Amino acid sequence: MTQRPLDINQPDSEKVIIVEGAREHNLKNVDLVIPRNSLVVFTGLSGSGKSSLAFDTLFAEGQRRYLETFSAYARQFVGDMKRPDVDKVKGLSPVIAIEQKTVSRNPRSTVGTVTEVYDFLRLLFARAGEAYSHITGEKMVRYSEDQIYEKISTTYENQKIVLTAPVIKSRKGHYRELFEQIKKRGYNKVVVDKEMLDITTGMMLDRYKIHDIDIVIDRLEVKPESPKRLQDSLTTALKVGEGYVTVIDESGDLHPFSKFLMDPISGLSYQEPQPNSFSFNSPYGACENCEGIGIKSEVNLDYIIPDRSKSINKGGIIPLGEYRDNWTFQQLRVIAKKLGFSLADPINKLTEDQLNAVLYGDDDAIDIVMKGDKWGGHKYETYFKGVINIVSDSYFETDDDRMREWAEEFVHEIACPVCNGDRLKKESLHFKIDNKSISDLARMNISDLAGWLKDVELRLTNRQKIIATELLKEIRNRISFLSGVGLGVLIAPFTSKNIKWR
Ligand SMILES: [Zn+2]
Fold this sequence. Notes:
The chain contains 17 helices and 15 strands. By secondary structure, the protein is of the alpha+beta class. The strands form five sheets. Strands 7-6-8-5-9-10 form a six-stranded antiparallel sheet. Strands 2-1-3 form a three-stranded antiparallel sheet, with helices on one face.
């Protein structure tokens, strides 16, 4: 690596950064002076220590110093950072690293994951977020046993009700053994898929269907003057149902209650939130459709057929080019003949069915008669899989880089249709603080986020305030640091939305 002439005797820490005795990885006790406020480039052979100096020494030391300014409370979440192997670094101001490698190869990392603000937001949401049902929008509730008792005894006063404990929720199976066990535990009735049944010997369900099974714990009349029976049965039901209980009222309607987060209307329940529930790197938090990336690639029809007045023969289908005597065109000729069109027809003259066969393939086997000396006259039975599938397989299913590059031209990236690019599970996006989800906050630019943080306490409940105060302080610290280093205008550092990856 190239070194500037060293003048440590004239240190002017306003104008330079001084590094003495850098030994991280392959650095051989390097001393150097780096001018500040200018664009500095490290060049050199691979392995000469460019990254060891930039990332593992300068950035690591800057991060470490920055973290040292935080309270012990904050540091416990981040962990201590190792001091880089260097004798002295002078004149270093707060650092930001954008690792070029990370940005281009791993779409999960953004500036936000470097600054760790997002980690604090995850903690904040796990502790102080309020859950809303993604089915009804209702605020999710979490009752204590006493509260459930109160609800039942007032709502169903003098009514006959059935208390059931859920044991299977939306799962496939025949459950023969389960019914036997339930019977052995002394219960005679179950509610299977909303129907009350006596447990009979050898009873089993359709193993390929999804079932809900509740054990009937008790059938009773709710009498406020004799609370004991309801209290006891409720305790049993919550124990058997592991925190869940359902009341069936006189008209046969089901009313679920839970000690955990639950939608009082639909009965939908959430797991207790963890910091991981808000991480797009964790299976607990990541949207399952895009695996937490927020974007999906798909073949773009407009790239494949940009001009529908052209015929297939004249190159109307860009990935195929103009007519050639190759395998795909031979297949297309057979398809065209079968469906009654010509490859010389303009594409806009094709019917929907004809075009669909060209694009997505045809289910019927077709015969191709081979030409040439060796295989001439030989008949091959094959299936035409369609241009879109040919392109899509070449992009998604291949290890061949050249093939992938060819297909890449016809593929575009769209925001994941399930999470809308927010990268998280539906549940995770329905935890809110001051009516904002974690992704609403992550999408804000730094100055807007700072604005939101400024007086957010005023809009919190007392419970949230108590839990959130310390965390909010830490987040504010970091945000003001980011504004301080001039990142205030950098839009949405935490999500991939505004960053084009290729
Ligand atoms: Zn998604």
